[in-house]
Amino acid sequence: MMKKAVLAITLLLSLAAAPAVAATFEEGQIWRYQTRPGEEASRLFIARIDRGVGTQTIYHIYLDGLKLKNPLYEGGVQDHLPHAPVTRQSLEASVTELLEENATMPDIAEGYATWLLAFEKGQAGFFTLPVNQIVQHIEDAFAQAK
Length: 146
Known about the structure:
By secondary structure, the protein is an alpha+beta fold. It is built from 4 helices and 7 strands. It is 32% helix and 24% strand.
């Protein structure tokens, strides 16, 4: 009996900590997501969705509330990620709470245009990792580029 109770509690706790999965992801949504430590106030914006570009749907996200170490920024810290192309799997592994729908989105036009040009030439792709790992990989790349 005790083993069943422990198993049930463990299962409930794992479900409570698991990311939420939306029935649909749509442009104009703002989500909470599993962040890196210290970035709990960060939000994920779904600013654009490309269906039929490449082999799968690509979601273009913007993140705010970051503490991304970037030597190219004044003070060495970047507080937002202006554009990142991700897959549905990336979103499903990351989002935890839908905050708003039909919201005004940040302008991702510059980053999107740069990405699209490179993507069409086969020189860019999209992320499949959870969003917090994407942020960490970007920070690690800046650190290695020094």
